[in-house]
Amino acid sequence: MSDAPELIRLDALGPNGPYRSQASETLHDVTGRPVAELSLVPRLYVRRALAALRRARPLPVAERTAALAEAGRLFGSATVNGLTVQEYEHAVRRVSGLPIAVVREATRAVATGLAGAYGFAGQARPRGSRDASYGTSNAVWIRRGDVLAVLAAGNHPGIHEQWAEALALGYRVAVRPSRPESLSAHRLVSALHAAGFGTDRVVLLPSDHGVADDLVTGADLAMVYGGDAVVDAYRASTAVLPHGPGRAKILLTADTGVLRHLDTIVASVSEQAGAACVNATAVFVEGDPEPLARAIAERLAGLPSLAPESPAAVLPVRRVDAARDLEKFLYAEAADATAWLGGDTVVNELGDGAAVLRPAVFQLPHANAPQARLELPFPCVWVAPWIREDGVGPLRDTIVLTALTFDQELVVRLLEEPTIRNHPTHVLVPGLPHDGYLCDFLMRSKTYTHRPPAVP
């Protein structure tokens, strides 16, 4: 008899309930051991699932909000798909390599996001529009479609909090989870089913990349996560909301006293294990960047290399071969940058087939150096000089910018720059937009005039 633990079964969750397909993929942890078996659905199954979503009607608002709150409770504290919340978090930690403290924080964030999804979605409602269910307003707020496809990212479990707002607004949702971290999406859809959302209102459709295209084209609207190629492919589409690299940045002007903000900078780079899209990847300094780069390196050098199950772990872990590939890529891209930390290696092997990804700090020669756009899934930061003549150009194309300055004119210019999506930092507040309000994409306002019939 084998002593190997039983694999977690992650069936597709379709309109008729769990579906175990002939095609499957084994998900491994950061040491190479198998953890779960994920069913992959064929193209025909996706098309039939989308048709079922389109036929379904939304739950009434009161039932929706109650079901979302119950799903949040189940996700955050109950046994779902045979896994307690502790077993789920342990499994996510194993396959993602994220520290267990980060996984637990994400669990709480998703549960909170579900419970407040309807209220959070409503914060994006235009002041002059009301919900279509009232039917008496001059302007009503309505969905742009009925079915939303979500091609989810796998860098952080908290990413699933956002699409719950679509359910709150009456969308039916089809989710394609990212591999290998499919556990969070599976738990969330299972919790939604158990809480009262019908299996024909939200489905989980794991699939290969070819079938994923059918999800995008078959739904009314789609949210798609990926790299620059994904963003470029869908940039012109009004039916697809692409989410690419975050490229979060920090700007420090000379009037602030650069080293006074070291705690904020280090936290922005390293919290969430440096794996979130809102972690800072570039710091721009008005003046000499060397003292700040050295100080950041000294602080990050003290972070411990621990296995992700350790309560004190703060750095991500990967399989050794994957970690070495990332290191090779980093050094190829670093080129003429000056290494203050991580120049010899960023890989610390743990002896069990896994390796901690250690922090890296590089100094760039100028603000427009291409490396400032490079985002990696661990604490890696590029420190560059910035002068007033550089303007906002090097700061563009970022999900979040922290501007540490007393220059209010500069702040206004940054706020008005459309490619800087948020101010400030790596801290996410429930109900405030992560990358714009999702409802800006999902909803629109329509004029409605209602006149009662004339009395004969």
What keyword list fits this structure?
alpha/beta, Aldehyde Dehydrogenase, Chain A, domain 1, 6-stranded mixed β-sheet, 32% helix, 2 domains
What does this 3D model show about the protein?
- This protein has 456 residues and is an alpha/beta fold.
- It folds into two domains: 8-244, Aldehyde Dehydrogenase, Chain A, domain 1 (3-Layer(aba) Sandwich); 248-416, 3-Layer(aba) Sandwich (Aldehyde Dehydrogenase, Chain A, domain 2), CATH 3.40.309.10.
- Helix content is 32%, strand content 21%.
- It is built from 14 helices and 22 strands.
- It has helices at 43-55, 61-77, 85-96, 100-115, 117-122, 164-168, 183-195, 209-218, 228-234, 262-270, 290-301, 320-334, 408-416, 439-442; strands at residues 8-10, 12-14, 17-19, 24-28, 34-39, 130-131, 139-143, 147-151, 172-176, 202-204, 221-225, 240-243, 248-252, 280-286, 317-319, 338-341, 347-349, 354-357, 360-363, 380-386, 401-404, 443-447.
- Strands 16-19-20-14-13-21 form a six-stranded mixed sheet. The chain has a five-stranded parallel sheet with strand order 10-9-8-11-12, sandwiched between helices.
- Strand 11 (221-225), helix 9 and strand 12 form a beta-alpha-beta unit.
- The longest helix has 17 residues, at 61-77.
- The mean pLDDT is 89.
- In DSSP terms (H or I, runs of 4 or more residues), the helix count works out at 14
Unreliably modeled segments:
none
| Mean pLDDT rating | 89
Strand order, sheet with most strands:
16-19-20-14-13-21
CATH architecture group name of the largest domain: 3-Layer(aba) Sandwich
Structural domain count: 2
Portion in helices:
25-40%
From the 3D structure, determine the CATH topology of the largest domain: Aldehyde Dehydrogenase, Chain A, domain 1
CATH class placement of the largest domain: Alpha Beta
**N-C termini distance:** 84 Å
Shape: globular
Beta-strand level of the residues, as a percent range? 15-25%
* Coarse structural class: alpha/beta
CATH superfamily of the largest domain: Aldehyde Dehydrogenase, Chain A, domain 1
Strand runs, count: 22
Radius of gyration, CA atoms, in whole angstroms:
23 Å
Largest sheet: 6 strands, mixed
